[in-house]
Design brief:
Keywords: Signal. The chain is α+β, with helices and mostly antiparallel strands. The chain is elongated and about 80 Å long. Helices cover about 40% and strands about 10% of the residues. The longest helix has 21 residues, at about 5-25. The protein has seven helices and four strands; from the N terminus they run H-H-E-H-E-E-H-H-H-E-H. It folds into two domains: about 1-30; about 35-170, Cytochrome b5-like heme/steroid binding domain (Flavocytochrome B2, Chain A, domain 1, Roll).
């Protein structure tokens, strides 16, 4: 092989390695978010943002051929790229088709799959920012719109703190 061919191959491998290091995937688009190489992302951009009710969001759980959506405090994300995690039978399937904002904070996945944050200390709400950032910057997931919740009746008591949250409050 000539020196030029060897140099070109080494440059290509170095470029791919740099891309893997900076973006977590093998692409040549260093300056662009990883979602930009996702065809589903572009199809969603053409459709525009979705505005869902809670009932509509519930249908996006990976069954019946629909995409898989999760919501965090009103923001809806497409996580269809990981059906083994978020689809039926997946480890995180309980988040699919729901706004589980409270569970993202408390870690109580059986009782706190709700957007109702009453009773959760405000300083704990920073967890929601971290989760939104996770979904918005993930190479395979992207924001598709919002879910609109009906107002919470103030006469209904807030959800009781779960054991995980009680441990945080007592610490």
């Amino acid at each position: 092989m000539s020196v030029v061919v060897v140099t070109a191959i080494l440059a290509l491998l170095a470029s791919l390695g740099f891309s893997k290091y900076t973006h977590g995937n093998y692409t040549f688009n260093y300056a662009y978010p990883p979602q930009y190489t996702n065809a589903r992302y572009w199809l969603q951009q053409l459709k525009g943002p979705v505005n869902l009710t809670e009932a509509e969001l519930a249908t996006f759980d990976g069954s019946h051929g629909k995409p898989i959506y999760v919501a965090v405090n009103g923001s809806v994300y497409d996580v269809s790229a990981s059906p083994d995690l978020y689809g039926p039978g997946g480890s995180y399937a309980f988040f699919s088709g729901k706004d589980g904002a409270r569970a993202y904070i408390t870690g109580c996945f059986s009782t706190d799959l709700t957007h109702d944050l009453r009773g959760v200390p405000k300083e704990e709400w920073i967890e929601l920012v971290a989760w939104k950032l996770f979904y918005e910057t993930h190479a395979k997931y992207f924001k598709v719109g919002t879910v609109h919740h009906p107002p919470i009746d103030p006469r209904i008591p807030p959800p009781a703190p779960c054991k995980t949250m009680l441990a945080v409050l007592e610490a």
